Amino acid sequence: MTVKNNKRTVFGWAMYDWANSAYSTTTVGALMPAYFAAIVVGEDGWNFGGTNYLADEIWGYATGIVIFIFFLIMPVFGAMADMSGSKMKFLRIFAYGGSVFATVMFFLTAGDVWLTLFLYLGAQFGFVGSLVFNDGLLRDITTEDTIDQVSTRGYALGYIGGGLQLIFAFVIVLFGPDLLGIDTGLATRIAIATAGIWWAGFSYFSFSRIEVDESPKDLEPGVTYFNAGWNSVRETLRKVRRFPQLLTFLIAYMFYWDGAQTIINMAGVFSVSVLKLTTQDVLIVFVIVQFVAFLGAVIAGRVSNSIGPKKTVLGCIVLFFLAGNGGAFLPEEQLLPVIGLGTIIGLGMGGIQALSRSMYAMMIPDNAQSEFMGFFSVISKFAAMWGPLIYAAVSQSTGSGRNSLQVISLVFVVGFVLLLRTEPEKLRITPEEWAAS
Fold first, then answer.
1. pLDDT tens digits along 255-303
2. Per the domain annotation, does 216 fall within a domain?
3. Domain of 343: which CATH number?
4. Which of 232, 287, 302, 275 is nearest to 405 (CA)?
5. In terms of pTM, does the model score above 0.70?
6. 191: which of 8, 172, 308, 321 fits an S-S bond (Cβ 3.0–4.6 Å)?
7. Per residue in 308-325, pLDDT tens?
8. CA triplet 189, 134, 289: central angle to 5 degrees?
9. First CA to last CA across the chain, in angstroms?
10. Angle of helix 75-84 relative to helix 369-384, nearest 10 degrees?
């Protein structure tokens, strides 16, 4: 039997956020979008099917399509892991597989648009898949009175680990050309590769400390885990509609999470393509945001203990709304205003991620943890795919990514109003209630 709140296991679980945040921060957040805009695509854009696309438009469409693919295929994995008793096995497969794709990005050069998108898909598949199974372990290793603190601890370690790796990448990109006699492009590719290696190495460290007992559930003859997983997901969709508070929370989450993820995913390429910042500038901003986000996660955890996670998340939504609208009016080639806006985003990021996850975990029944986290991942992907697509479409039709940010900011208003109508702290679905539904 798994021992709840075991210090070694809890630390190991939280350290996976430390491991994967190197990829999400350095590669996806800072370097890859900037490198894609500056080197792979360039200022002249990329012609496809007779239409010329700018870098931020390509990145927006690509991000939305990738997330749509995850929306279609990810829900079954959570249910399969829950039924097969293989959360740790799947976590290892996705984490190590994704880190390989992330490391191979080192070989990308000018004009490699299709190869970039392929490797991005592979790395993102591993990253997102691993998070489903890692999130599914949260209820296995904690109790109700510690779940918030453990969740925020994971994000806090993620911000520190991602920030340290980002500083390492910054040193490589800033000083590598002079010390090693290489160009900035090669220095950037080396920094991207180190993020993949960091992800793999600290994943091994994390997994070696997690101790959970998992046993498979009995299946009827002729039924596979895959079929059982899809049946379980369909049943989850049917039952969720019978819990209005849970349904309203999920709809609210879809809106505000779409906005938050769009701002985070598009920040790097927006900074280079629209604001005309350099790769070094983008790295400086992301280093600052990373450590501000760590403070935001710590502050959000303490504020949540005083006023509750719902009110804390509402405050974070307001910060993102201000950031989205403010970003539309930033001047070109000026770093300080971007740093100021990044600070606001960092403060909101810590709370909105950790507390949304723990609020949801508080509501779900004990006997369907991975299934529900898989379903949560589906909702996250369904929500997050629209923002980048809308950003790209608005930018392409109006000629400016600034207009895109203003449109995206509207989703925070909808999410805020819907979240006001919920009481997630008071809702706990018991296994008996879930089975009876």
1. 999 899 899 888 888 888 888 888 888 888 888 887 788 788 788 888 8
2. no
3. 1.20.1250.20
4. 275
5. yes
6. 172
7. 888 899 999 999 999 988
8. 50
9. 29
10. 170
Q: How many CB atoms neighbour CB 433 within 10 A?
A: 13
In order of 341, 365, 375, the CA distances from 217 in angstroms are 49, 17, 19
- Identify whether 2 is part of a domain: no
| Domain count along the chain | 1
Q: Is residue 175 part of a domain?
A: yes
